[in-house]
Each structure stands twice: as C-alpha cells, then as structure tokens.
Amino acid sequence: MYDDNEGFVFESLEGWVGNKCDDWRDNFESNYSEKFDEYYRLWRGHWAEEDKTRQSERSKIISPALQQAVESSVAELEEATFGRGKWFDIKDDQADQDNADIQILRNNLDSDFKRNKIRKNVAECLINAAVFGTGIAEIELTTEKEMKPATQPVMGGELQAVGVNITDRTCVKLNPVMPQNFLIDPVATTVENALGVAVDEFVSRHTVEQLQEEGVYREAEIGTSTTDWDIEPDKDLATAYDDDKVRLTKYYGLVPRYLLTEAQADPDAEEEVVELVDSGEEDNSYYVEAIVVIADGGTLLKAEKNPYMMGDRPIIAFPWDVVPSRFWGRGVCEKGYNSQKALDAELRARIDALALTVHPMLAMDASRMPRGSKPEIRAGKVILTNGNPAEVLQPFNFGQVNQITFAQAQALQTMVQTATGAIDSAGIAGSVNGESTAAGISMSLGAIIKRHKRTLINFQESFIIPLVTKAAHRYMQFEPETYPVADYKFDVSSSLGIIAREYEVTQLVQLLQTMSPETPMYPELVKSIVDNMNLSNREELIAKLDQANTPNPEQQQAAQQAQQAQQQAALEFQNAQTTALQGQAQESQARASKYAAEAEAVPQELEIDRIKAVTANLSAGDADDKEFQKRLEVSKQLLKEREVAVKEGNPVQATPEPQAQPEPMAMPEPPMMQPNMGQLPQ
User: Fold this and answer.
1) Cα–Cα distance measured from residue 118 to residue 137, given in angstroms and rounded to the nearest whole number
2) How far, in Å, CA of 320 to CA of 459, rounded?
3) SS3 state of residue 450
4) Residue 208 contacts by C-beta under 8 Å, 6 or more apart in sequence?
5) In the 3-class helix/strand/coil scheme, how is 246-281 assigned residue by residue?
6) How far apart are CA 220 and CA 205, in angstroms?
7) Is the C or the N end of the chain the one with fewer CB within 10 Å?
8) DSSP 8-state secondary structure symbol assigned to residue 424
9) pLDDT at 96
10) Is pLDDT of 177 > 80?
C-alpha cells in the first residue's frame, strides 16, 4: 500500500518505528560504527589483529598518548563546569520583579541534582564526547519513595507516635547513552530538527516487568532477546547471555497520526494519549509528536502523544567539536588518531628490534647435534654437540637499536598533543632555544584555552542549558507542590577552565608584586587569586578575606573619630600659623613705616646740621663772610654724601659741632671739619 506523504503505508505503529530504526542503524554501521570501535579500543589500550602494520609484527603495545589526551581534556571541562561548586544559575525575566519563585526553583534543582547524582552522569557523557565526538544522554522520569518524619496521635490524643510518612515522588535522572545505542535521522544535525531519535539498548528483564506492574508499560508477553554485538556496550566483554535481558527501543519523535490513533484504539491498551491543547482546537497535521516503546523489535509496550508541557524530546546531545552539517562531532580520539597509529607502529617496531638484539637467533650444524635434542635458548640450558661448540653454534647479531627512534617517538607524542590540544603533566610546550619563556608559554596556553573554550561553549549551549531547562519543566509539571514556579528564565553559569585559571593566577601574582599592600586594589587582587585557585577551602578563605576587608562598626566609628580629631588639630594648627603670619606681617609693616619716617627725617636733620656747621663761631666781617661761603660749599657736599648713604641704607654719623675759637687770632680751619671736609679752596 502506498501513500503520497509516507510512501509505503504500515499497518502498525511498531512496524513503522522499527523500519525507521533499521534504516538509521544501517547508516550508522556503514559510516561510523567501525571508526567508533577503534577509537574505543585506542582509548582503552586494547590491541586487535587489525592494528598490525606488517606481517612480522609481534609487539601488541598501545601508546597511552590518546588516553592522556582524553583524560586531560575531560578533566579540564569537568573543572570548568563543576570546579566552583555552583555550576548553574537561574535568573528571572525582566518583566517579573519577584525573584522568590526563581530562588525556590534554583535551590530545589540543586538539591535534587545532588540527590540523583547528575554530576556523575554528566562526567560520563563528557568522556563519551571526547572518545566518540558526541555526548548523548536521556532524561528519564522515575518514581521513588520519599520518607519524611511524622507524628500521629494515639490513645485518644494523649500520646504521639513518632514514625515516617512514605510518599511517591517524581525524580529526574540522567542516563548516558553510548553512540552504538543511539539512532537518529541521518540528515539531521540536532535532536530537535530530526524526524525522530531512538535509544536502542539491552535492559534487565525485571526493569521492564516492574514498569508493567506500575502501569507505565502495557501488559504484554516479553520474549527472549538474541545477542546483538552491535549494540553491546563493550564488545570485548560480550557474552551469549540472553536469559535476563530485553532489547528495548524507545522512540521519541514524529509518527503518523493515524498509526498512533490505531495503536491507542487497541482494546488491550490501557493508556490514553495526553492532550495538552485546547479540546476545541483542531490539528490536521499528518505527524504528531509521540513516545513509542518497543520490546524485542515487535512488542509494543507504550504509545502516547508527547506528555511534556513544552512538547520537547527527552534527549540532549552535544558535539565535542562541530562537524559542519553533521550530527556526529569530532572528538579527541579522532583528532589524534593518525599520530597515535604512527606512534604505535614506531614503538612496536622498536620493541621487535630490541627483542632480536637481546635474544639473537642461532645457526646450528644439524649433522653435529645429538639426535633428539631441542634447539631452544633459555638461561642455564646445556646444549650437547658432537664436536667443538664454536663450530656447531653461531649467533646472528643484528646490531643495536638506532637511537633516532627515541627522538621520533617523542616527536610523535608531541604531534598527538598538538592535534588534540591537550597538555601532559610534564609541562607546557612553549620553549625558545631550549628554555621556557613567558611569551612562549603564554602563546601555547592561549591556543589551548581557545580550543577548550570552543568545546566548553558547545557543552554549555547544547547540553547543560537544555538539561537544566528540561529538568525544571519536568519538576514543575509533575511536582507542582515542590516547584511552585510559573515565570522563569534560565541562565547557566560556568567559569574558566583549570588551565586558564592557573594562567590567570600567574598574571594576578605578577600584578600583585607591583603594588603596595596599602593600595586599595591589593585586597581585591588577593581575593581574585584565591578565587581562581583549586583549593578545598576556597569559599572559607574568601569569606575570611571579605570579613577582613569589611571594617568593624566600632572600629570604623573610632577611626572616624580619630580622623575628625586629626582634622580638628590640623585646622587649629593652620589657624595658629595664620595668626602668627598675620602678626609677622603687622610687625614688618610697622618696621617699614618706621624706616620710612626715619628716611623722611634724615634730610631735615642734615639741613639743621648744615646750618649749625655754617654759622657756628662766625663773627661779622668780610673774612667771616668768605669763611661762611667755604663752609656752605663744604656742607652742601657733605649733605649730598649723606643723602646717598641714606638711599643706600648705610648708617649716617651725626655731624660734630664746631668748637669756639679764641679772639683776636686769625680764623683757622675748624679741626672738626678737617677729617670730613678736606682742604678748603683758596
């Protein structure tokens, strides 16, 4: 039968789902299965016959280079996500100013994630992503018994009986899915844009029977599953044990509406499809989002419309490195595959050559060997010969192992690290002329950190955020009493990786050495250094630093009082200095006024002295008149000299008064005038 939309029309829902899953598995086995098996073996260090590079190869050694790269890369992402304790955060939208409901949601999710060991399962998904290139997980709802302390009145309320109340509670768990157990539409790039996805794996029979008793699955006869090596978790440990396992195929995706309706119309079906849309709304689409569970490839156990309120699929997946237009990503093992294979071939060849060197072959003369002797070599063995042993036995020497092979192996080891972006415990590549420099290490760390940031972004956006979002939706739908939230917005927080944080600590320490402890930025730098260190008591140290940087109110008040007293003392000292300066200024002004008055009085005193000098001891007569004229001229000259002296600031001596001369002697020169006046003119 043929249909325009579907092609061949199937008579049952389980037949349609089984056909899709078979086609998807054929595609996976043709393109990915063989490579994924080899990546798994190299990571585990298991040797296989196809690993031989030559027919004579005898060594089976596997280099641990890829193992180290996987462990280092996974540890980096684990530290980046869970290293600070708080690995997710939920913020409310801007329209809602009440954050009380979001705080309840965040705290309850954190508690439930710890109880259900979500971190452990996330770490397993990281390992799968590093090895196979894609980490896949299934979000599963389970019902668990929860016990709470309770009291009950007995004997008419006189006594209280202490006990527990047992209630059923819905829990969200995370189940990692191996790549060989996951099926997806080959043309899809994400879980959301695929026609559907399926988890195909073996489970214990009692698990299915318990779910049937709880009413989750239909009551149907479950047969015995045959062993399928393609879906075994570890092919090396696979055994033909079929008595207690069931092949369970869980399909999440679009199915034809008519097939789902017919499957639910089965009179043996106990479940009804959950309609979450308005009953008056008509949906005429061909496909409907549903959940279908099939046992052993043909027994329908569950068929219902997607019961989740957001209509999302309970599958999350992220690529380690994105391959454009492909769902399956590129992991650490694929990046270092070629270098790992070359390194293994180099090591095996060296070990084989070393075995020939240490244990050489012997050439024997069979005609001179005793009959029945066994020509084997071992410590302490006695070999019987017919004749001189030097002529009968001769070792073949193959020389020594070339030392260049060790350098080649080291170069191949470095190639693995370069390809994967991982660093070993021995150190960081970045040496210049044989010496590690800060610039070289910084350049190497820069490239490594950028690679890990890209993977970290993929991990956050495609795995962590959907995990928290889907888990919150499930709890709010099935546990409304514990999660009374109606308005929310999620924001997953993460931090720098361990490598980036150690590099940041180095830079902070260098910056700290350039500052004084009294600098305001000094406490903040110390806090940043402690915050970036991987310490068990980091939170306690940060709290101590915050407490130390936060002043005590009493100490702060005392400091303020001391500061005010210091300011008051400084103000008083300033006022005293101002007063002293003002007094000095007044004194200087008075001294200047005095000097000015003295300067004004000097000419008058000089004039008086001149008159006295001219008129002293003079009588009437011509001779006295001539003498008067001479003294007048001298006094004028003396007056000029004193004026110059006053202007220059030199002290001025008073003019001595002339002595009286006896009469009638002739008028001699006044002795008192001789020192200063000199010889009078004739």
Assistant:
1) 11
2) 7
3) helix
4) 217, 222, 246, 248, 295, 301
5) EEEEEEEEEEEHHHHHHHHCCCCCCCCCCCCCCCCC
6) 13
7) C
8) B
9) 58
10) yes
The CB density around residue 662, as the number of other CB atoms within 10 Å, is: 5
Main-chain phi, psi angles of 299, to 5 degrees: -100, 115
What does 2-46 look like in DSSP terms, one character per residue? EETTTEEPPSSHHHHHHHHHHHHHHHHIIIIIHHHHHHHHHHHT-
- 653, two tokens: 């001596």
Length of the chain: 682
In the DSSP assignment, the letter for residue 237 is G
| Integer angstrom CA distances of residue 315 from 181, 460, 466 | 13, 15, 9
pLDDT in tens, 563-621: 888 888 888 888 888 888 888 888 888 888 877 777 766 666 666 666 666 565 555 55
Gap between the Cα atoms of 204 and 465, Å rounded: 31
Cis omega (within 30 of 0) for bond into 670 = no
Cα within 13 Å of Cα(517), Cβ side? 1
Query: Cα separation of 275 and 219, whole Å?
Result: 23
CB neighbourhood size of 480 (10 A):
11
Residue by residue, what is the 3-state secondary structure of 304-322?
A: EECCCCCCCCCEEEEECCC
Q: What is the 3-state secondary structure (H, E, C) of 646-664?
A: HHHCCCCCCCCCCCCCCCC
Check residue 84 and report its DSSP letter: T
Per-position DSSP letters for 203-235, written without gaps between them: EEHHHHHHHHHTTSS------PPPP-GGG-S-G
Residue 437 has pLDDT above 80, yes or no: no
Measured between alpha carbons, how far is 471 from 109 in angstroms, rounded to an integer?
A: 8
Closest CA to 184 of 255, 253, 238: 253
Query: Helices then strands (H, E): number in the chain?
Result: 19, 16
Cα separation, 145 vs 165, in Å, equals 10
Q: Which amino acid is at 283?
A: D
Helix axes 498-513, 521-532, angle to 10 degrees: 150
The two structure tokens encoding residue 138? 């299934």
CB atoms within 10 A of CB 526: 19
Sequence-distant (≥ 6) Cβ neighbours of residue 421 within 8 angstroms: 73, 335, 447, 448, 451, 452
Instruction: Please provide the average confidence, as pLDDT, over all residues in the chain.
Output: 78
Contacts of residue 393, Cβ cutoff 8 Å, sequence gap at least 6 = 362, 363, 364, 383, 385
Give kind and range of the element (H or E) at residue 469: helix 465-478
Q: Is 336 exposed, middle or buried (0-12, 13-18, 19+ CB in 10 A)?
A: buried
Among 28-42, 139-153, 201-215, top mean pLDDT goes to 28-42
DSSP3 helix / strand / coil % (the chain, rounded to 5) = 50, 15, 35
User: Cβ contacts of residue 572 below 8 Å, gap of 6+?
Assistant: none
Each residue of 24-68: pLDDT tens digit? 999 999 999 999 999 999 999 999 888 888 888 888 989 999 999
How many CB atoms are closer than 10 A to CB 268?
A: 8
What is the mean predicted confidence (pLDDT) over 189-209? Answer: 92
The answer to whether 643 and 637 are in contact (CB under 8 A) is: no
The 10 Å Cβ neighbour count of residue 159 is 11
Q: Which residue has the tokens 């050495």?
A: 513
- What crossing angle do the helices spanning 34-44 and 337-358 adopt, rounded to 10°? 50
DSSP 366: G
Q: What angle do CA 380, 383, 389 make, to 5 degrees?
A: 120
What letter does residue 427 receive in the DSSP assignment? B
Q: Which residues contact 644 (CB under 8 A, 6 or more apart)?
A: none
DSSP character for 681?
A: P
Q: Which residues on adjacent β-strands are paired with residue 143?
A: 170
